[in-house]
Amino acid sequence: GSAAAVAAGMAPIALGNDGMGSLRIPAANCGLVTIKPGTGVVPAGISDGDWFGMSENGPLATTVEDARLMLSVIAGTDTDVVRQDAPGTHKIALSLRSPLTGVAISKPYTTAAREAAGLLIKAGHQVRRADPPYPMSLSLTSLAHWTAGTAVDAEGLDPRRLARRT
């Protein structure tokens, strides 16, 4: 909902949280900028837990600058300092591999990633291909954490008031 609201111009920025892509996937589909910060960058404060370290809060915005500013605010860093890096100062790793065994990244997403890499190279940054060594068990481990996190979130709910499917 937040990504759609920002993309539609209903809000200039929004806060979301991401445990398994809930920021990144809507942002990609709505043409927005987001970031899932590293662990501990932004205080989680998500329900009774953070899905065992999987879920983090992050910005949704239409520009990189707006996302950077919002991230600096929610992370509690100095928002008055705009970091102006010289071209060629960043080393960027690009992976087109899914972390989940048997799941392929579809062509629109790989094309978008390659185009972004091209823009970064034109801006003077170093981009190289790097595929993290994801363990084969990642799918099962992620699903176990996700369902356990959902169970923690649901502990205080009255089951009689929930739909049977829930």
Q: Your description of this structure?
A:
The chain has 5 helices and 5 strands. The protein starts with a helix and ends in a 12-residue tail after the last helix. The model has no long low-confidence stretch (mean pLDDT 85). Strands 1-3-2 form a 3-stranded antiparallel β-sheet. The chain has 2 domains: 1-84, no CATH class; 86-133, no CATH class. The protein is an alpha+beta fold.
Give the topology, please:
Blueprint: H1 2-7, E1 13-18, H2 24-30, E2 33-34, E3 56-61, H3 64-75, E4 91-94, H4 107-122, E5 126-129, H5 138-154
Parallel strand pairs: 4-5
Antiparallel strand pairs: 1-3, 2-3
Structural category is alpha+beta
- Please give the alpha-carbon distance between the first and last residues: 20 Å
- Poorly predicted regions are none
- Our estimate of the beta-strand percent is 5-15%
Report strand order across the widest sheet: 1-3-2
Keywords:
2 domains, two-stranded parallel ribbon, 166 residues, globular, alpha+beta
